[in-house]
Each structure stands twice: as structure tokens, then as C-alpha cells.
Design a protein that fits this description.
single chain; Rossmann fold; two-stranded antiparallel sheet; 9 helices; 15 strands; 33% helix
Length: 304
């Protein structure tokens, strides 16, 4: 847990760091970038030197304003948060918006059955069955223990080498998704209990496979407390934070006096600039996930 008032120091640090980066850009361009241009660079965005990426948008209302160029296609994005924070609903909102844009999406559930996920989507304003009939969506439930056993068999066959084929383990034959949602990594990790190295090998190969086939992925992980707050990083042993290209944290917010809200923050996004503020996030019945990029958290609060 972290008290809201302590965020002021972190934000101040972000501004100083951002200004240093801008200064370096100014010097390296040998006068080509004017003082006025540098001054107008948004201080709340982390500026990066881009390679050439194809970017995608989530189209989750308000969320894309937190990411400068968008999400580089093929990136693996970790969505983390506590129970009831809205991680799965955020993932389902990404599904809805992508299907509406004609993208193919695979939702891989290791927790809830397919029918319940379809019911969730309907409650938040979309018809999963129509997307499935149109060939845009495939919802499939997996048994995490079966995955662990399959990985062990593949590793044994490969004589413990790191090169294993994840296609028969997870990706349905004949379906080539643009976006993959995995809910959740916590369930997969628990099935590798006592075998952290096996879990890491599997995740490395899964990430490589998704990247090779240019599949943008959103991997949901439940945490009891925020493992990332501002610039602070705490590794919790599941070997996914450093493997992921981006991290989105969704928080339960408790205010002094009993008021409760939700909030969202983009911790990192390789290949794109990010807005480093924590802003309000909500779930609306009949609509789904909504981000409010202009409502920065203020006051005396605790993040969980």
C-alpha cells in the first residue's frame, strides 16, 4: 500500500527526469531543435527514441490518451491489479473494441468458463456470439495444470532445451489472432508450483511466439498489493514484469472517510512515450471500462 500524498515527490522526480531527457535531445540535435520547441514538450510524457513500429490503439474510452503513439504491434502488455480492480473487464473492453474494428482476438481463460465471459461482455454492451459468428473472436478455456504437464512433456522430449513449440499448447489451430488476452498469469504460475524455472521457460517461449507472429498480447495478473507505484519497481518472482514490453496497473483507491474509487496507470511501454500520471478509471454497466485521463488522483488516498 502507498499513501497518495507521497506521490508528489515521485511526480516531481518524473518532471526532473523528463527535462533531462529533453535537454539531451536538444544538445544532440546541434541547435536544430529550438528552445521554444523543447519548452513545449509535455513534461508528463516520457520521451523515447523510436525505432519504426506499427502502432495499435485499444480504443478503450480515454485510455489511449495515456500512451503517446499507441501500443507497438506485437508488444506483450501486463495488466496487473488487485481483486475487483477491473482487470478482466479492461481486457474484455479491449476485445470488444478490437472486434468492432475487424481485428481477430483470442481470449484465453484459465479461470472463468466461456459462457460466463460471454455474459460479462453482454452486460458491458457487446455481443460476443456475434463476434464469434463473424470470425473475429474465439473464447477458449484452458486448464492450467494441463498446460504445465504439456510443457514438462515438451521439455523432456527436447532434453531440457529451451526451444519448445507453444503452438499446440495454447494457440487453436486455424485461428490467427491479431490480439491475444490471457486471463490469468496467476493461474498459470500456480500450476507450476515449485517449478519457477519451468514457468519462466514457458513464458519466454510464449512471448517469443507471440512476437514472432506479430500478435499483440494482454496478460492479466492478480496481485494483492501494487507491485509497481510510479518509478518504484518490486519483483514478485513470477518472471513476467521484465519480460513484458508494457505494464498497466489498475488500482482500488481508498480515500480518507471511506470513499472508494478505481484508478489506472501506465508504468512502461517500450517503443512509445507514456503519461506517467495515475488517473481515474471506472466500470459502467452497459458500457464497460472507461478511463478519465484528465482526472488525476488527488487528496489523501491509499492504493491497493
Amino acid at each position: 500500500m502507498k499513501k497518495g500524498e507521497s506521490r508528489k515527490t515521485s511526480k516531481s522526480t518524473n518532471k526532473i527526469s523528463s527535462k533531462k531527457i529533453v535537454s539531451k535531445v536538444k544538445l544532440s540535435t546541434a541547435g536544430k531543435k529550438s528552445v521554444k520547441q523543447v519548452a513545449n514538450t509535455p513534461s508528463n510524457f516520457l520521451n523515447v527514441n523510436h525505432r519504426k513500429f506499427n502502432y495499435i490503439k485499444t480504443y478503450v474510452p480515454g485510455f489511449d490518451e495515456l500512451i503517446d503513439d499507441g501500443i507497438p504491434a506485437g508488444n506483450a502488455i501486463l495488466i496487473e491489479g488487485g481483486p475487483g480492480s477491473g482487470k478482466t473487464v479492461f481486457g474484455l473492453e479491449v476485445v470488444k473494441r478490437a472486434c468492432m474494428k475487424g481485428k481477430k482476438v483470442l481470449f484465453m481463460s484459465f479461470e472463468e468458463p466461456e459462457d460466463r465471459l460471454r455474459a460479462h461482455m453482454e452486460a458491458f454492451g457487446s455481443n460476443a456470439e456475434n463476434f464469434e459468428k463473424q470470425g473475429f473472436l474465439k473464447i477458449k478455456r484452458f486448464n492450467a495444470l494441463d498446460i504445465a504437464r504439456s510443457v514438462e512433456a515438451l521439455l523432456s522430449e527436447a532434453k531440457k532445451e529451451l526451444l519448445i513449440d507453444v503452438q499446440p499448447v495454447l494457440i487453436p489451430e486455424g485461428f490467427d489472432p491479431d490480439i491475444v488476452i490471457i486471463d490469468s498469469l496467476s493461474s498459470i504460475a500456480s500450476s507450476f508450483s515449485g517449478e519457477d524455472s519451468r514457468f519462466r521457460i514457458y513464458m519466454e517461449q510464449l512471448f517469443r511466439y507471440l512476437e514472432k507472429h506479430n500478435m499483440t498480447s494482454f496478460l492479466i495478473r492478480e496481485v494483492s498489493n501494487p507491485t509497481h507505484t510510479g518509478n518504484t519497481f518490486v519483483e514478485k518472482g513470477e518472471a513476467v514484469s521484465f519480460l513484458s514490453d508494457g505494464i498497466i496497473s489498475i488500482y482500488n483507491v481508498f480515500y480518507k472517510g471511506g470513499k472508494r474509487k478505481r484508478a489506472i496507470e501506465v508504468i512502461k511501454m517500450r517503443g512509445s512515450g507514456i503519461d506517467r500520471r495515475i488517473v481515474e478509471f471506472d466500470i459502467k454497466k452497459g458500457k464497460g471500462a472507461i478511463c478519465y485521463p484528465n482526472r488525476v488522483l488527488k487528496g489523501d488516498f491509499i492504493l491497493t
